[in-house]
Write a structure and sequence with these properties.
The structure is a homodimer. The first copy, chain A, is α+β, with helices and mostly antiparallel strands. Helices cover 40% and strands 16% of the residues of chain A. The structure holds manganese (II) ion (4 copies). Chain B binds a DNA duplex through residues 3, 5, 27-29, 32, 37-45, 48, 59-60.
Amino acid sequence: MLSFTEENYLKALLHLTMEFEDKVEAGTNELAFYLGVKPATATDMLKKLKEKKLIQYEKYGKISLSETGRKKAIEILRKHRLWETFLYEKLEFTWDEVHEVAEQLEHIHSPKLVDKLDKFLGYPEVDPHGDSIPNAKGELKQSFKKTLSEVETGTSCKMVAVKDNTAAFLQYVSKLNLRIDTTIQVLSRQDYDGSMELLISGSKIMVSQKFAENILIV
Amino acid sequence: MLSFTEENYLKALLHLTMEFEDKVEAGTNELAFYLGVKPATATDMLKKLKEKKLIQYEKYGKISLSETGRKKAIEILRKHRLWETFLYEKLEFTWDEVHEVAEQLEHIHSPKLVDKLDKFLGYPEVDPHGDSIPNAKGELKQSFKKTLSEVETGTSCKMVAVKDNTAAFLQYVSKLNLRIDTTIQVLSRQDYDGSMELLISGSKIMVSQKFAENILIV
DNA sequence: CTAATTATTTAGATTAACCTAACAATTTTA
DNA sequence: TAAAATTGTTAGGTTAATCTAAATAATTAG
Ligand SMILES: [Mn+2]
Ligand SMILES: [Mn+2]
Ligand SMILES: [Mn+2]
Ligand SMILES: [Mn+2]
C-alpha cells in the first residue's frame, strides 16, 4: 500500500509529464518545486519510488512514470475528480472550493467506494473544472486544448475547461459570468500586452493575456 | 491541526470513557491495547496530548478527556457516523462494510463538508449500526441501552443497535434476519451457558450469550 | 572548450510515531 | 503488610519524511 506522500509524488509526476503534448519526463527540481519540498527531499523519494518500480529514473537523469506508476497516478486522479464532482453536484460546493477537499479525499483507499461513487454520480465524464475523469479501467481521455489566448480575433469559441485551479482564479472567472460551456466572442486584442476584449452573453469585458491563457476552449 | 494519530487517540479515549455509565477514565495499557500499540508508545502520546491540553493526565494516573479534547473526539465520531450513513444510504454499502472506510473518512478536515453531508443525508439521528450521531453543536445523545442477554425470558423487545462492529458479527446478525427495529421474542434460556432461544419474524433461532450481549434492545 | 551557472545528490540532522528491554510505581493477594 | 502481580514509565532505537549545507554532475555561455 502506498503512503499518502508517495501517492502525491506519483500524482505530481503524472501532472508534470502531461503538461504539454510532447512532455514525458520531469526533473528533480521541477518536481520538488511543484510539491513544495526541497530538491534533496525529492531525491530521497525518487530512490524509493524507483526501488518500488513506480518510476524510471537514473541518478542525474530525467524522471518518468513506469506503467504501474502511471496506473496508480491515474487512479488517484480519478478519485480526485470524482470527489470534486461529488462535492459540486451533490453537496453544493462551489467550483473554487472543491479542489482543497478533494486533495484529502483522493487518498481514501477503497476500490468499492470509488466505483460506487462513480455510479452514484452517473459516470460523469468531466469534473467541475472541465477536466476529463479517468474511467474504471484507468483510461484517461487526454486532449490538449487550445487556450482563449490563441483564438483569432473576430471569431467565437466555447469555454470547456480551466487550466488554473486556484480559488482566486476560479472566483474571478465566475464573477465575469464565465462558466463551462459559455460562448465567448473575441472582439479585439491589444497588440501591446495581449489583453482581449470579449463578448459574453451580451456584455463586453476585458481580460489580460495571462487570464486568457488559463481558459481552455473549443 | 491534529494529526491522524492524535485524532485516533482522542477517539479511543472517548470510546473507553463511555463504555458504561460510570466509566469516565481510562488506563495506559487499556488505551494501548485498544489502539493496537505498545504501552510505551501510548505513554509518549499521552504526554503530547496533555501538553496540548486535550486530556487530563498525571504520571501513573488515570486518563480523561479535557473539554476541548472531548469536543474534538465528538467531532470525529460525528464524521465517522455520518460517513457510515452516507456509504450505507447512498452508495449501497452493507452495514458490515462501512466501518473500515469510515475509519479513513473521519479524518478529512473540512467543516463545510461535514455540515453539507449532514444536510444531504437529511440530518440522520443514528448510523447504520443504530449508534447516535452527534449533531452540529457537538451534542451526543448518549443512552446506555440494555442488551438482549438481559431481557427476561418470555418477553419481547426490539433491536435498536449493535455493540460489536466487526464484519464477522454484523454478517452473522444479518444472516439471522436480525436488523435494526426487528422485534425479538425471548422464548427460553439455558441456565448452563446463557444461550437463548429467540423468535424472530416467525422463525425460531438459538444464539449464544456472547452474541446476545452484543445486541442492544429497547 | 573552459568557466560559470544550474541541476542534482550526499551527508548529517530533526520530528512523529512506533518498538523492545529494563526499571519503577501501584495494586492485589496471601 | 510483604511478596507477587500488574500497570505504567524511561532509555535507547528505527523508519518515513522532511530540512540545511556542502559537494558533484550536467548544461550553458562566452
Ligand atoms: Mn482539483
Ligand atoms: Mn478538477
Ligand atoms: Mn464504525
Ligand atoms: Mn457505526
